[in-house]
Amino acid sequence: MRIDILTVMPEALESPLGCSILKRAQDKGLVEFHIHNLRDWSLRRHRKVDDYPFSGEAGMVMQIEPVYRCMEELKAQRTYDDIIFTSPDGDILDQPMANTLSMAENLMILCGHYKGVDFRIREHLCTREISIGNYVLTGGELPAAVIADAVVRLIPGAIGDEQSALSDSFQDNLLEAPVYTRPAEFNGWKVPEVLLSGNQALIDQWKMEQALERTQRLRPELLDDMK
């Protein structure tokens, strides 16, 4: 998989994309990240990529020209499965969406910044808009890193135990059952006896019961989505 990220703050992506599972996936050749500084496609003085909105309201807006030039150059080299814009009013990122994106070959992510982007970018250049929550951030770099992490960890071989990803919360619209490790007792707090029984059928039944109980208690809307 190849992921191209368009940004005015490339340094904001260096750390999250360069460690842990994402770094290992790159080292294994499973994914390539290419960070593009949109200022490199600006023809204006001081490499500016923003201007005042026509509406007269406060804030600056990313211009269409540098974004268009960058996208056209990249699209001339390969076909993209999706061109994503990170936006607070996009579709909320969830596990089924991450599953779908993980099967792509080439993804492009445009990070919003300032007051936003010229709306023509969203209308004519992007194929999908994704939000990571109902709040506003300084820029789209953190959402781009979140999207990349959620997607890349699902690529076969990215994590040590591929079955682990299949049991994550939200894969079946259920929260994950509680997990424990050694010691079996600490400060008088004990691991549930069933997990020490060695009876896999009972353990699986307990996990399902716990997943259902936690989902009903903490995120009941997920069960509504299953109906």
What does this molecule look like?
This protein is of the alpha/beta class. The protein folds into 2 domains: 151 residues, 3-Layer(aba) Sandwich (Alpha/beta knot); 59 residues, tRNA(m1g37)methyltransferase, domain 2 (Trp Operon Repressor, Chain A, Orthogonal Bundle). It has 9 helices and 10 strands. A hairpin with a 2-residue loop joins β9 and β10. α1 packs parallel to α6. It starts with a strand and ends with a helix. The mean pLDDT is 93.
> What spatial order of strands do you see in the largest sheet?
2-1-6-5-8
Write down the domain tally.
2
How many β-strand stretches? Answer: 10
CATH A-level architecture of the largest domain? 3-Layer(aba) Sandwich
Instruction: Tell me the radius of gyration.
Output: 21 Å
User: What top-tier CATH class of the largest domain fits best?
Assistant: Alpha Beta
Q: In percent, how helical is the residue content?
A: 25-40%
Please tell me what the overall shape is: elongated
Helix count equals 9
User: Structural class per helix/strand content?
Assistant: alpha/beta
Mean pLDDT: 93
From the 3D structure, determine the CATH topology of the largest domain: Alpha/beta knot
Overview features:
Alpha/beta knot, 227 residues, 2 domains, Trp Operon Repressor, Chain A
Would you spell out the secondary-structure blueprint of this structure?
Elements: E1 2-7, H1 11-17, H2 20-27, E2 32-37, E3 50-51, E4 61-62, H3 64-75, E5 82-92, H4 95-101, E6 106-111, E7 116-117, H5 119-124, E8 128-131, H6 141-152, H7 162-166, E9 185-186, E10 189-190, H8 200-218, H9 220-225
Parallel strand pairs: 1-2, 1-6, 4-7, 5-6, 5-8
Antiparallel strand pairs: 3-4, 9-10
Helix pairs in contact: 1-6
